[in-house]
Amino acid sequence: MDHRVDVAVVGGGLAGLSAGLRLARGGRRVAVFEKSSDLGGRARTQVRDGFRLNLGPHAVYLGGAGRKALTELGIRLAGGEPVGPGSLAYRDGDLSLLPANLSTLLRTTLLSAGAKWELARFLARLPLLSLDELAGVSVKAWLGDTFARQENRDLLAAILRIATYANDPERQSAGAALAQLRVAQRAGVRYLDGGWQTIVAALSTAALAEGVVLHSSAPVAAVDGQHRVEGVRLADGSFCRADAVVLATDPGSVAALVGDRAASLARFSREAVPVRVASLELGLRRLTRPSHLVALGIDRPFYFSVHSAVARLAPEGLALAHVAQYLGAATPADAGATRAALEAFADRVQPGWKDEAVLQRFLPDLRVSHHVVTASGGGMAGRPSPAVSEMAGLYVAGDWVGAEGLLADAALASARAAAKAILEAAPVASVA
Ligand SMILES: Cc1cc2nc3c(=O)[nH]c(=O)nc-3n(C[C@H](O)[C@H](O)[C@H](O)COP(=O)(O)OP(=O)(O)OC[C@H]3O[C@@H](n4cnc5c(N)ncnc54)[C@H](O)[C@@H]3O)c2cc1C
After folding, report:
1. Which of 167, 186, 205 is the last residue of a domain?
2. Cα distances (Å, whole numbers) of residue 48 to 45, 54, 63, 403
3. What is d(CA 402, CA 408) in angstroms, rounded to the nearest whole number?
4. Distance, CA 43 to ligand 1 centroid (Å)?
5. What is the pLDDT of residue 102?
6. Does the residue 290 lie in any domain?
7. Whose Cα sits closest to atom 34 in ligand 1?
8. Which of 186, 206, 221 is the last residue before a domain boundary?
9. Domain of 33?
10. SS3 of 300-344
11. CATH code, 246
12. Are 52 and 191 in contact (CB under 8 A)?
């Protein structure tokens, strides 16, 4: 059935839902179209045997743009924060203390005395670094210029991996990666009670209350219009006329929906460098080493964290651990080998975990972000703006868009910017 709205939003993830909610609060008639049967996109949480499984390890950066955007929308984020000191470093198959503050830096056996001194001097300088000057410098080049000690290059590379999820030091912008490290250091991260689905549910409920029409199992096949959008055409043949369209999807879907009418986005889609991880989730009857809650690979790009230690994600008395490998841009050649490596890593952190496992889920190739912020693109300046200049009324939002933040922070901040631009472009709503 054909219908008409002020704004059609394509994609029912965090970006699409939050853009829809903002636009409805601004007085616009809004419809959101999501191709999947469930809303939420990569922020979905599945419940299995009482365990709440996000799509791989998910943490809210409390000092980031996403939290700010959600607070503005009245959405609270209940959960708990993992404690930094006590985290472990994994190198050469051994575990040691991860230097997280002065006390752990002094005590750890991870670094030689000379490396500790070099790191302490760097940490004192870190808040003063001018990150704008590092936008066009790669992480690899920056590590080489900053540290004489290979131990510290490896440690900082691992810390930037955990802060950004990217394992792409030759391409990643040092300025953008260090900005994210500052965000992580400023306020830490929070794992959410019930998983990220709680954000999706809160956004959906608020959007429905504002009159947004949420369509699931509704793939959009095309955006109509030449130099100005006319609406969206659904895969079932129906048409939704709209004055503005927000594409809150991945760059490949955007290119398929608008093609050469937005040549800059078609080009961006071809050149985008994704951020991927392999994820192994473990539901455990008990932890064999209760104090081993967080471990970070230094010479291997590995991550281990017991999210249920601080957030309600597992049945009473049981534990949910996330194990992951940061993959970089390429799809892993051998998923079986990746899983075996993650299982062996987990065995080092929680020896004998297999005897305690009541649930395992392995996802070999997840797309954490559609684009790593690159040095060659000049840092954040290399990401597309929410307003698409080639086509009036067309906007994009997602973790690959806009000048602010990474990951979900970017998705929520670009959705905010897109909604603001639409509301400012036509301050008086066309609503009758
Ligand atoms: C393993 C993993 C770990 C992560 N960890 C973190 C973390 O710790 N912290 C953090 O901040 N972020 C994290 N993220 C990233 C975060 O999940 C995403 O940045 C955020 O959820 C993206 O939201 P989005 O709405 O932009 O995109 P998506 O969630 O991908 O939503 C896009 C939606 O568009 C729909 N769609 C696409 N094409 C069409 C079409 N033609 N018609 C209709 N619908 C369409 C899709 O089905 C999808 O639902 C992680 C992601 C992964 C995968």
Report:
1. 186
2. 10, 11, 31, 37
3. 12
4. 6
5. 86
6. yes
7. 11
8. 186
9. 3-43+197-271+374-425
10. CCEEEEEHHHCCCCCCCCCEEEEEEEEEECCCCCCHHHHHHHHHH
11. 3.50.50.60
12. no
State whether the beta carbon of 45 lies less than 6 angstroms from ligand 1: no
Same domain membership, residue 175 and residue 154: yes
Residue nearest to atom 49 of ligand 1 (CA): 41
Q: Which of the listed residues 249, 322, 406, 414 should we mutate to test ligand 1's pocket, taking the one with most ligand atoms within 8 A of CB?
A: 249
CATH number of the domain at 302, please: 3.30.519
pLDDT score of 136: 98
Could you report the per-residue pLDDT of 42-85, keeping only the tens digit for each? Answer: 999 999 999 999 999 999 999 999 999 999 999 999 999 998 77
Residues 170 and 249 in one domain: no
User: What's this model's pTM, rounded to 2 decimal places?
Assistant: 0.97
Beta bridge partners of 357: 284
32 and 76, same domain (yes or no):
no
pLDDT for the residue numbered 432? 35
Looking at the 3D structure of the chain, how many domains does it have? Answer: 3
Instruction: Please list the ranges in the chain whose pLDDT falls under 50.
Output: 429-432
Return the closest-CA partner of residue 12 out of 207, 230, 221.
Answer: 207
Phi, psi of 296 (to 5 degrees): -125, 125
Residue 287 lies in a domain: yes
Q: In the numeric block, which tokens belong to residue 356?
A: 């305690």
